[in-house]
Amino acid sequence: MSVKRVAMWSGPRNISTAMMRSFENRSDSAVVDEPFYAAYLAETGREHPGGPEILASQSQDWREVADALCREEPASLYYQKHMTQHILPGMDLSFTEKLTNCFLIREPRRIIASYARVRGDFTLEELGFEQQAALFDRECDRLGEVPPVLDAALTLSNPRGVLGQLCQRLSLPFEEAMLQWPAGPRDSDGVWAPHWYASVWSSTGFAAPPAESSERPKTLTAAQEAMCEEAEGLYKGMRAHALRG
């Protein structure tokens, strides 16, 4: 079987799970949810909600995970939801050359404000901005062209147009089923889902941005403001290439 392996690289507090739902609702796909999560926790020792269950649910060896992502053939379209903060220092990224890599971005201030409501103490490294930008630059150099970039706000404003353009870039037929899905959990959800996926479990499609979306969150500490400033340049550099439908 010829398998197209689409890897979507995102930081936390984005629409990454909704995007996974969208692809899983296609007629030709299988998905995997954050396959490097256990390896990341094992390597960093960070405490996350449901940490012991996560460590028990996946391989903690990133090499073993990477091999499976490039070898397994669960469907003709294998969609892989990845978190860029799970890219560990020293990780050999040559496995990504066997994948079709795409990038999902969101305004840093919104990510940081959202993440701060879940975990009060964190570093910029835990949000994956730098890892995402480095992988993006690597792909640009390898391909000689810009890989697909999706911005969360632009996608929510025009899901049909952006997803249609993404499918075109991926040489896939667009399916209407990508725009809506059944509410509730799925077997493909990681064991961490009860801690993070409440809004996705209640969703049936891409929700339009709220009316107040143009107002930037202002409740950040001085340290978080500094993170925002550092991440903004990385975000803007990638957003210039975002699909607009």
Automatic annotation (TrEMBL):
<dbReference type="InterPro" id="IPR050571">
    <property type="entry name" value="Class-IV_PLP-Dep_Aminotrnsfr"/>
</dbReference>
<dbReference type="Pfam" id="PF19798">
    <property type="entry name" value="Sulfotransfer_5"/>
</dbReference>
<dbReference type="InterPro" id="IPR027417">
    <property type="entry name" value="P-loop_NTPase"/>
</dbReference>
<dbReference type="GO" id="GO:0019752">
    <property type="term" value="P:carboxylic acid metabolic process"/>
</dbReference>
<protein>
    <submittedName>
        <fullName>Uncharacterized protein</fullName>
    </submittedName>
</protein>
<comment type="similarity">
    <text>Belongs to the class-IV pyridoxal-phosphate-dependent aminotransferase family.</text>
</comment>
